[in-house]
Amino acid sequence: MELAGAIITLIGSIFLFLGALGLLRMPDIFNRMQAGTKATTLGSILFLAGTALAHAECTCIGKIVILILFIIFTNPLSSHALARAAHHIGIPLAKKTVKDDLAKDEKKNKNSQTGEGE
Amino acid sequence: MMKKLKHMILSFLGLMLIWVLLTSWDLQEIYAGLIVSALIVLLSLGMEPVLGDVKLTPKALVFGLWYIFVFLKELLVSNLDVARRVVNPKLPIKPGIVKVKTTLHSNIGKTILANSITLTPGTLTVDIKDEYLYIHWIEIKHDDLEGATKDIVQKFEKYLEVIFG
After folding, report:
1. B148 close contact with A: CB closer than 8 A
2. Do B115 and A80 touch (CB under 8 A)?
3. How far is B10 from chain A (nearest CA, A)?
4. Model pTM?
5. Fewest CB atoms within 10 A around its CB: which of B24, B76, B126, B164?
């Protein structure tokens, strides 16, 4: 049991490491967030689950389930808020970027609004 | 009114569950939890009854449980996918922001859809406007709205539609 917990914790920390590597390697803020959110979510979940397995004798499993649920609910929210703010203040996307529907639609909205004002 | 009552009952049960998991099966602590949960539900009466949109049919419950497994599988796949891109020396990405359409109406349904999209393969919700979601996609496979919607949204939507409507 303890061994299984240790292995799961190790896998979790590998995902956390890959997330950190992704932060360094990705070209712009949105791609960095991709690496940041997903890897940290699964990494933390595995880390906590591994801890619960390794210390199965304690009564902390309920608490760990709650921690995992809170991480699942809050992690994407924070990255969504960051991405939205970043796009809103106009941080440029990487050169590799193919298209940007949001900027296009925002421009269209602005044009139609000024068109009504005239 | 029904919606509000449902919201109150569901949030009370949820709070109680968290309380029990955090403490223990001691009778005194359960009494304290009952009081605190009831107080929180009463104090938040003025807020939007978000949980009122949850459907409580047996089918919705089954889909809700099944959704957890679908979600965990997608979470694992997405991590392996992003990890593969990160360790590849060529960094094979083709990012962009695409627009997709959802048929969900309730706020909580949209919230959970957006969160699920953020946590799954190569996609990140940037903004929501009414029924359109703007999604940053790490490798664009479809250029048009229909194709992107089919690829990103529909695998979750068919479950969430049953659960939240």
Report:
1. no
2. yes
3. 17
4. 0.74
5. B24
